[in-house]
Amino acid sequence: MRVCKAGSGPSSSSPQVIRKQGAAPPWEVLVAQVLPGASPLCAAAWSGARGWKTSEDRGIYQALSRAAETACHPLGKRPCKMQAFRIWDINQKTFYLRNNQLIAGYLQGSNTKLEEKLDVVPIEPHAVFLGIHGAKLCLACVKSGDETKLQLEAVNITDLSKHKDQDKRFTFILSDSGPTTSFESAACPGWFLCTALEADRPVSLTNTPQEAMTVTKFYFQKD
C-alpha cells in the first residue's frame, strides 16, 4: 500500500529493534520505513510487511503492530494524516462528480479541472477510508436486500472510526499488483471498486472482478 511515504531512517531516539536471525524481511527495513511525523515503531507496523516465513514471524509482527497502535495514537488519534491521492483506471479514465455521483471518464482541455482526487485515511495496514477531496463525501459499500452498491455519503472522513461497526461500510482493503491497486469492500467481501469500459459511466462495485466488461485495477498516486 503506497499511502505513507517512507522516511530516511530512524532518529537517534528510535527504539532498538534486534534482527532475529533468518527473519524476513529484516527488522531494520521495518524500522527504517518512517512515516512523516510518526515514531519508527509506528512506521514498522504501517510498513505493510509481507513474506513472513514462520508463524513466529507473523506473531512478532502482530505484536509489533499492536504496540505501534498504542505508540502512534495513545489518545485515540489516527496514526497517519489524511492525504490526497489521484486515481485513474488502467484505461486512463479519471473520476469526476456529476449530480453527486462519481463518474469515470476521459477529461480533456478545460474539463481536466473537473477531476476529483480522493482523500485517504489509513486505518489498518492495507485498509483505508476513501472520500472525495474537500467535498465531505465518503465512498461507502451498502447492501440492501440482494443489491450491493457504491454510494457517496455526506460525512466528514475525519469523523469516521475503525472501531464503529456502522463505519465499516466506508472501509476498503487495498491490494497491490505491480503498479496498480484494487479496492475491496471490507463490509462486503468479494466486492471491488470498478469502472465500466465505456466512458462517463458511474463508478460502482462488482463481485466478478475478472469480468471483461469492468475494470478493477487503478493507478493510485499521492497528489
From TrEMBL:
SUPFAM superfamilies: Cytokine. PROSITE patterns: INTERLEUKIN_1 (PS00253). GO terms for molecular function: cytokine activity; interleukin-1 receptor antagonist activity; interleukin-1 receptor binding. Gene3D superfamilies: 2.80.10.50. Keywords: Disulfide bond, Glycoprotein, Receptor, Secreted, Signal. One of its GO terms (cellular component) is extracellular space. InterPro entries: IL-1_CS, IL-1_fam, IL-1RA/IL-36, IL1/FGF. One of its GO terms (biological process) is inflammatory response to antigenic stimulus. It is found in: Secreted. Its main location: secreted. Belongs to the IL-1 family. Anti-inflammatory antagonist of interleukin-1 family of proinflammatory cytokines such as interleukin-1beta/IL1B and interleukin-1alpha/IL1A. Protects from immune dysregulation and uncontrolled systemic inflammation triggered by IL1 for a range of innate stimulatory agents such as pathogens. This is Interleukin-1. It comes from Neomonachus schauinslandi.
